[in-house]
Amino acid sequence: xxxxxxxxxxxxxxxxxxxxxxxxxxxxxxxxxxxxxxxxxxxxxxxxxxxxxxxxxxxxxxxxxxxxxxxxxxxxxxxxxxxxxx
Length: 86
Prior knowledge:
Layout: H1 2-13, H2 19-30, E1 36-38, E2 45-50, E3 53-58, H3 62-65, H4 72-79
Antiparallel strand pairs: 1-2, 2-3
């Protein structure tokens, strides 16, 4: 679970695209993980299986809403990391 949270946040804070392209990156990064799935209902949703069951997330306006949640120097630090998130 923590892997998803860290990967998701790093991708979001370092991302410079649209909600759709962000979701495409999530799909590519987690395509082989059984706990992650693309939504069949909405093209801007994805589902993660948590300890309590399946939870569906919607990425509509997600990139826009999360641009200013961290100080700029913190975002720069995360984006410049050479350690890959797997």
